[in-house]
Amino acid sequence: MTNTNDFRRYSYSSDASYAIKAFDVQRGSQAPKLNPEGEKSFKVRENKVVKSKSQIVKEQKKAFVKSAKIAVVAVTMLLLAAVTVNSFVQKNELTRQISQTQTDISNAESEYVSLQSRLNSLVSMSMIDEYAVEELGMTKVKSNQIQYIDVESYKAQRQKKLSEQSPAATAKQLNNKAADSSGIKNN
Question: Cα–Cα distance between 62 and 65 in angstroms, integer?
Answer without folding.
Answer: 5
